[in-house]
Amino acid sequence: MSHDTTAPALGVGMVGYAFMGAAHSQGWRTAARVFDLPLHPVMAAVCGRDEDKVATAARKLGWAATETDWRRLITRDDVQLVDVCTPGDSHAEIAVAALEAGKHVLCEKPLANTVAEAEAMADAAARARERGQLAMVGFNYRRVPALAYARELIARGRLGALRHVRVTYLQDWLVDPEFPLAWRMQREKAGSGALGDLGAHIVDLAQFLTGEPLVGVSAQTETFVKERPLPSAAAGLSGAAAGGGERGPVTVDDAALFTGRTSSGALASFEVSRMASGRKNALSVELNGEAGSLAFDLERLNELEFHDHAEPAETAGFRRILVTEPEHPYLEAWWPPGHGLGYEHTFVHQARDLVHAIAAGAQPAPSFADGLQVQRVLAAVEESAEKNAVFTPVAQSDEA
Amino acid sequence: MSHDTTAPALGVGMVGYAFMGAAHSQGWRTAARVFDLPLHPVMAAVCGRDEDKVATAARKLGWAATETDWRRLITRDDVQLVDVCTPGDSHAEIAVAALEAGKHVLCEKPLANTVAEAEAMADAAARARERGQLAMVGFNYRRVPALAYARELIARGRLGALRHVRVTYLQDWLVDPEFPLAWRMQREKAGSGALGDLGAHIVDLAQFLTGEPLVGVSAQTETFVKERPLPSAAAGLSGAAAGGGERGPVTVDDAALFTGRTSSGALASFEVSRMASGRKNALSVELNGEAGSLAFDLERLNELEFHDHAEPAETAGFRRILVTEPEHPYLEAWWPPGHGLGYEHTFVHQARDLVHAIAAGAQPAPSFADGLQVQRVLAAVEESAEKNAVFTPVAQSDEA
Amino acid sequence: MSHDTTAPALGVGMVGYAFMGAAHSQGWRTAARVFDLPLHPVMAAVCGRDEDKVATAARKLGWAATETDWRRLITRDDVQLVDVCTPGDSHAEIAVAALEAGKHVLCEKPLANTVAEAEAMADAAARARERGQLAMVGFNYRRVPALAYARELIARGRLGALRHVRVTYLQDWLVDPEFPLAWRMQREKAGSGALGDLGAHIVDLAQFLTGEPLVGVSAQTETFVKERPLPSAAAGLSGAAAGGGERGPVTVDDAALFTGRTSSGALASFEVSRMASGRKNALSVELNGEAGSLAFDLERLNELEFHDHAEPAETAGFRRILVTEPEHPYLEAWWPPGHGLGYEHTFVHQARDLVHAIAAGAQPAPSFADGLQVQRVLAAVEESAEKNAVFTPVAQSDEA
Amino acid sequence: MSHDTTAPALGVGMVGYAFMGAAHSQGWRTAARVFDLPLHPVMAAVCGRDEDKVATAARKLGWAATETDWRRLITRDDVQLVDVCTPGDSHAEIAVAALEAGKHVLCEKPLANTVAEAEAMADAAARARERGQLAMVGFNYRRVPALAYARELIARGRLGALRHVRVTYLQDWLVDPEFPLAWRMQREKAGSGALGDLGAHIVDLAQFLTGEPLVGVSAQTETFVKERPLPSAAAGLSGAAAGGGERGPVTVDDAALFTGRTSSGALASFEVSRMASGRKNALSVELNGEAGSLAFDLERLNELEFHDHAEPAETAGFRRILVTEPEHPYLEAWWPPGHGLGYEHTFVHQARDLVHAIAAGAQPAPSFADGLQVQRVLAAVEESAEKNAVFTPVAQSDEA
């Protein structure tokens, strides 16, 4: 992408180019084409270990240069922002080094695989901020317009005192017991299963939407399918893995079920699963307050349901707001009312918001401290699950 | 109602004539008009303490005679079945006495306010059965055609191994903190709050649909509004209760949130509330199994959503079955396809099923033992909530 | 049904006891059990040609006596109201005779098979009214609470100037070309096909909801399956009708599609079909006005969708009103909010409203004149369809 | 956009840069980043009359060069494809000239404002094809994955013999009578109103989905608000236009309502409006066939509802297919299941399909002949509306 604008450039260097790398690339490529930005993102370089593969990805996704060592990427002069799209076990090392190298950092969620790593990252971000570098974690669902608007309505008091928070995130790609044992099902690589992958999203959303931290949780987790065909076996036997292929143990959760409390005392419930047959990407949210309620379903992401409890009973009801009006967050730059957006737009909005924050020298949200707070909730979930579901307090970030 | 049929009569005597009494009356009045029954229910007598009020109710609802003492009702020669529609604190006494008086008994849910009462009732029912009297508890939602059909699909294996059970029952009639302190908010009369009222329904449904008992639970309960205007104060001040009216303490829960496990290991989650603004009678159910999923919403009670996981991915999806076909439970006797039923039809179906069981001398379901099992789950919920949500085993009925 | 109330009796005599007879019986049996009525309906006698069958129906449905000749039924002293539930070709003769015999009349829809018959009936009703007898036509869907409430909202001006009326009524029981040739598919008996059966309902609803007559229509009709197995052939061959069974011509429409104008100039569209696979009883309505819109679907009959165009764009949206609040029409007498009603409740409401009108000596709606106006629209539809869809004026009733 | 790929370049020159220009730019920018394309689109130049504005647009949207005269653009050596995004009254002149200049052409819909223009364009396209230039019209909704998949299901016979086609496209931006009189409400510029704008889309979709041309139509059109404030008056008076601002006549339709027949005899109904309050971009489609039915709503564009009439009645129902599986059209290149797409993706898919057609030298669909056929239907609609809705045959393209 050439630098075809009058705004100053912001060089971006991305580490990783798989699913998240493709999504982030779409964000960087598109943000300045839709929004008026104070800085123009330039897709300077992408980094991956395999020289050929990263070159192919760069051509395909539109990155100007490639690196095979992230340590080189983070020292490039044409890179001011490092975008970390690797698996969770390398987030801490790369992000901290990039911050220390004087770069701004966008780090994919979950922030890290452990609380200790996340603490180190939040510390590094706090120090970097004093030097003028900013850090943000990529909880992209905050940038679904309907959810950003939900937050606005809540912040304006349209729900009143909160009573209930109900969030589930259900997928079904592991229903088949012959689905092979990928790295995502191994604890040493993935940290946890549905909990870290899907649970991180919904814990962040619950805290973002309510504006309140979770103060404690009670949890159960489960691995329904305890052994799966090894990928090599599965691949080699062309579907006949059951016949004689080797199997290995699944060492992460397939599903997690937990309840909690927000700081104001609302009851919160959470469920994540990769075994919910028929549910593809079903992140659903409901909040009930004394003055109103909101409901949302990611499979219908342009819609927000709102019940106004002040409405007379005879005409009251959940109204389906199409969140596509120019008054809605992010929508002033897109299409006319009713012309919906999709999943990847969250990455365009994320890029836009981060660019604005960098230009203004302001802390972007969610911060690494926010990411650390999510990590602490997930740790409390795992601790509670080990302790027979007993209600387990969540350590609070000082900054959160 | 005259006895205008060739089938032998089954005399019914009902205790109580409020909301549930009206609903049961509709059931007794209608069942033989729609279904072909082996016995013809005759609405022999209704019982209430106030002579004038019960006489008015009898005329209105169609009962042939009245009583003001349930002890007299249960000895009437023209009564073979006693239908107990009183609040929960008198269920045990009336139901046990009626069984011992040689009558069949239908008892409204929840079976009782305590496990001890419920055990006594289950024992009495077991003894009565040997003498030929039958007892049934009124979990009427089992008779929603869509839920009865859901049970059939599950029993036939269409969901396969169950992974997730998710049931919520949300209402909003207590959102307003000025709503007065009725008996339903006082522990000594009501036993518990949303838990006993709504929770009993969804625990029974979860066990009915899965065919599996819950083996343990982890729970939180909450009373969001801790004091409310006394009814006299509220009434006397015509809405200005806040000004100076007396208030009393709410001694039951407004909401309960619990997770559990079924005997086969499925993860189960439950939530009940009277504070979920905008939700009127929102009993929603979802079950995910290895072979398929089901979803149901009581606010759309003629519909069942079914996902068949064996369907090719490209044409798979939750299908909305209108449960109004002659092949569906109870529907052979009602209207053509697409002509939906309502809430009260569950009581017609309950009457029909109980009449068939009595004619055949067969145990109707749900039995008092089933009602006791629900009571044990509710007790475990309260115990867990007192013990910091720790996972608490549910004592199992020998019969269940 | 014994006369167990202090209200004066209103003796009802019903002619016909098939689908509509069963539905009307449910209405007469239930109305006084739920609503406080000024007159108590007594199910005096039912009439049918076959002595045994009518006796069985009387026992089953709860009628006190039987007749085999409607001419005798309409002269019975214990009958003050004649309820005509026969096929359309006998409506005129029975209804006119009953009115002339000094009885009130409820006549099933459509009012008649021809405009001439309907005119005679409207004339007879006008004369009868002067003598104190009242006549009503059974467009029961006006008594769905959501539609009665929709009419209220429109009458209050909540939609403003109307622009669009869109009503369809789709069923699928004739999709199978081997479905046998019943009387409903023969013009001499049924008058027309989907048009008279389903079209009468939606034309009445459009006129009722808008409060405006249709002034003209443009129409197409179609008979997709032009020959069907004769019932005897179909029955005799146990499903193998195609092999060699006789077939006969279908002489009515399978579907009709028409557009029209209301008297204020709104554009109206209508479609009825018995060939819309997957649609069981899908009567859907949408009205768009300058100030708001309403949408309704009979398969979800407890819901009404309302868009208030005065709401700010950012929070506007179709709200799903559960029409189960005590403020809603008919609901004060039924169950708590969220406990939905079904199809047959429309007949209970119809009975209630007619009883009130008779007690007050007031003209019930819809009148025979309203039924005549519907008939004139259907005649204009058939005329337009024969004339290449040219816009065809609808003759207006003087009274309508 | 630099040419950062190994595929040969395809230079694109676009005329116009408003709403459609922005949407097409998004398509050209993204197609090769997501799909593997045989040619790499290069955004060579954009053309607009105002030099400054077009320069700003080029920077913003990513075009390498600018032109202020389309006659120069179509002769540029670096342009092989001309993308016409101007209003309809200039389509014919630009598209024909571009084809004659040896360029491929993509022309926005509707193809033209008159049948005569459309015929000239179809002729030019036929001649150009012999020389190797290809022409396509931009009916982008064919590229909504759910609609592309619907076409596949129909082509495979999953609906069987078609009985009903029902398509509406409703918007509400003209509900307010004070909305000013823009060029879209003036016949000399816009050709027609909702009919040409929205009606062109749904006529094309009906013909695309069924694979059948419409053979005749019966129509009504309406202009509900006959005068509107002139834009200058409206602007100058800041909302107080009613007070004394000038008004001008609206010379196009606000809404059109028409019925028709497909070549196989299915009944078709259509409605378009800019006055349907609460409907933002509500393009809804339903098709009923002997073997099944499909339903679609553009406001939920990732979903397709499918009823399989071969399914046993007890488990049959409209299933909600999330059209986000890799098996679905276009989805192999996007995100995992359940991660939905939005409106603008249709332009990415359009770019992809056109690039493939050009690389293969194959006629892309929809062709200019297809666009002409739509134009003929719209002309027949206007003719019928002038002739009292009489059924009016549609002239058939020889090629269609």
Automatic annotation (TrEMBL), chains A, B, C, D:
It holds the Pfam family GFO_IDH_MocA_C3. Residues 11-130 form the Gfo/Idh/MocA-like oxidoreductase N-terminal domain. InterPro entries: Gfo/Idh/MocA-like_OxRdtase_N, Gfo/Idh/MocA_oxidrdct_glycsds, GFO_IDH_MocA-like_dom, NAD(P)-bd_dom_sf. SUPFAM superfamilies: Glyceraldehyde-3-phosphate dehydrogenase-like, C-terminal domain (SSF55347), NAD(P)-binding Rossmann-fold domains (SSF51735). Signal peptide: none annotated. Keywords: Oxidoreductase. It comes from the Bacteria. The keyword Chaperone does not apply. Residues 149-294 form the GFO/IDH/MocA-like oxidoreductase domain. It comes from Streptomyces synnematoformans. This is Gfo/Idh/MocA family oxidoreductase.
